[in-house]
Amino acid sequence: MDENASARLTRRALTVAHRVGLFLAMLLICLPGIWIVLSSLRPTVEIMAKPPVWIPQQLSFDAYIAMFSGIGKGGIPVLDYFRNSLIISVSSTLIAVAIGMAGGYAFARYRFRGKSGMFLGLMLTRTVPGIAMSLPLFFVYARLGIIDTHFGMILAYVALNIPFTIWLIDGFFRQVPKDLAEAAQIDGCTRWQAFWQVEFPLARPGIASAAIFAFLTCWNEFALASQLTRSVNSKTLPVGLLDYTAEFTIDWRGMCALAVVMIIPALTLTYIVQKHLVGGLTSGAVKG
């Protein structure tokens, strides 16, 4: 009995330690986000205080009121930036996922000459940081006349996301047995019907994961957007943060408020698709 009681206490202690460790890890991960939210509600004096003020003494929504009350009156055009971000991110994601599905399926299902080298070349493009491409893209876009346009930003983000979506979707299609599609074709399905009715549903969690990561990449990207946009017609929310900077001052509270506005849609979308996202990240193989 003593040994059993000791074992139970040990397991209970390990469980508690595990949960405490997870809580501390999540707190550490969420701390920057919590700090941004608090900074958007506290006075600038507390934001700039040294040593830092961890517990706000005064909270107000003045930064949010100033942000939205200035719409159309010479203030920060938040709605225009939001619209641009939404158009560019959604369009880029849809195109990148469509191309990623085609490319991932081709790499997973077919054998062709130069397949390994082509796949390796696509993956190596991910090693180039976006900021390194900003200057060459600027010169190319200037020649083509597509700087400060939605089309230019969508084109850049599609190119940025395609390697990752192909790589991720390829891995999920490899987990779907070829026998299922072949059996569907024997039963009378065309190759296209076998793909949509059999293979696509099984790979859907992976496709959803690729889509959410591609969307978040476009939604939060700053380096390329800051170089390829010039006016309200195409500026996105991350670039809009610069509107709170002046020659000698920075409105930290307003900048944090806009950052919170940026975070809310991303969190909402992640919450909506969390089942597909978790399934896509944790599912193993679909094996018969």
Description:
- This protein is an all-alpha fold and 288 residues long.
- 74% of the residues lie in helices and 0% in strands.
- The chain has two domains: 2-60; 67-282, MetI-like fold (Orthogonal Bundle), CATH 1.10.3720.
- It is built from 13 helices and no strands.
- The chain starts with a helix and ends in a 6-residue tail after the last helix.
- The model is unreliable at 284-288 (pLDDT under 50).
Name of the CATH class of the largest domain: Mainly Alpha
Mean pLDDT: 84
Task: Using the CA coordinates, give the radius of gyration.
Answer: 24 Å
Tally of DSSP helical segments: 13
The assigned structural class equals: mainly alpha
CATH topology group of the largest domain: MetI-like fold
Q: Could you give me the name of the CATH homologous superfamily of the largest domain? A: MetI-like
The count of domains is: 2
Task: Based on Cα principal axes, name the global outline.
Answer: flat
Low-confidence stretches: 284-288
